[in-house]
């Protein structure tokens, strides 16, 4: 009985990691601008993304497990649903993270999806390492993805404010040059 459970969990983890690259490409295709922003955020450092995502990740998993254990029929469905939605949310950030890894591995700027595939393949293969990959690297990647996705919204607002300020400064300089020419 115990051996069957271990084998089932092992096969689930391997199947999840083998299909992960397709999910990351899907997230990259659907949320392209967000994954580009996340890739830029991840290239600036991973510590901030990890700590931004740590509390929401732990809280969501704890909440889903508590609901799944203590609720009746609806809770048995609600717990895995919450975990699945959290996994999808984190995979959006993880897609940007593996794109950043892929950009460091290959220098093909013409085909952005190749960088996601290369980074996703290297991340997935690293996560196949028993114990270290399953229980440390993969959850850390999801936490980084969650934190990066959370930071992406404020990063986009900050970048648009900087672009507006730069545009305003350029317009002011152009107007002052036109006035000085007259």
From TrEMBL:
Keywords: Membrane, Transmembrane, Transmembrane helix. The chain crosses the membrane at residues 7-31, 51-68, 80-101, 121-148. Residues 159-182 are annotated as: Disordered. Residues 160-175 have a biased composition (Polar residues). This is Uncharacterized protein. It comes from Uabimicrobium amorphum.
